[in-house]
Amino acid sequence: MKYPTIEDAVGQTPLVALQRIEAQANKARGNVVLGKLEGNNPAGSVKDRPALSMIRRAEERGSIRPGDTLIEATSGNTGIALAMAAAIKGYRMVLIMPEDLSIERAQTMKAFGAELVLTPKSGGMEYARDLANSMVQQGKGVVLDQFANADNPRIHYETTGPELWEQTAGRITHFVSAMGTTGTITGVSRFLKEKNPGITIIGAQPQDGSRIPGIRKWPQAYLPAIYEPSAVDELVLVSQDDAEEMCRRLAREEGIFAGISAAGACWVAQQIAARHHNATIVFVVCDRGDRYLSTGVFPA
What we know:
CysM; 4-stranded parallel β-sheet; alpha/beta; 6-stranded mixed β-sheet; transferase; Cysteine synthase; 9 helices
């Protein structure tokens, strides 16, 4: 008998209906708001999907092989997922991340055996990405490059999108995702639009001055190459305060212990619900709240 491995536990995550947040208003409009629990993946986020996809496909192409050094700039979740995937596949993993990201993320990466290079907070992810590219040019390893790697959105086209279509029996009318690397929203949009061009795809981005882990509004020079603007019908800005308050509400009112970017997507989903009737709105719960305990978002 062949037993499943940890790789087989990635994907097929639950889709659950919110029961209390804005429940009366949504019921009156005939709307349902659903969260895709990507924190149920083994390394705890939606990034488990592209991390394994990028390594598997690179192996298939012969561009990497076990024992090689992989380098990646990350704000957290991709780094954790890649650290897990590298541990599974037998790679040395070097992760570059800004120093101000949560201690839980750094500790989790190290637990999987990854090596961390911390960059100045002032440089943000842009500096981390530049450093990763510089290290590759110096021959220190191979960058999978989540920001430009087509295997990132491809796995969402192949798995996340089909799961949502099946789980809603084709009833989904709106899809909301936080926008960081943009792999999730690009790949899911591609699949859902093929099934029904009338489905509306909404991206959550931070308001000016807001720092929401996992949600970015990139300068033009750093816009991810995998991003397809035509894949997103609407961009909605969310403030840090609204995202953090929704983070607490999801835990207290729904029993969903989610991260801040996931809560930002939920806040946007509720704004969409307030404008529509008889809608089936899905947002991505991209990770779990235990990655943010040290940030102070949850009451001590």
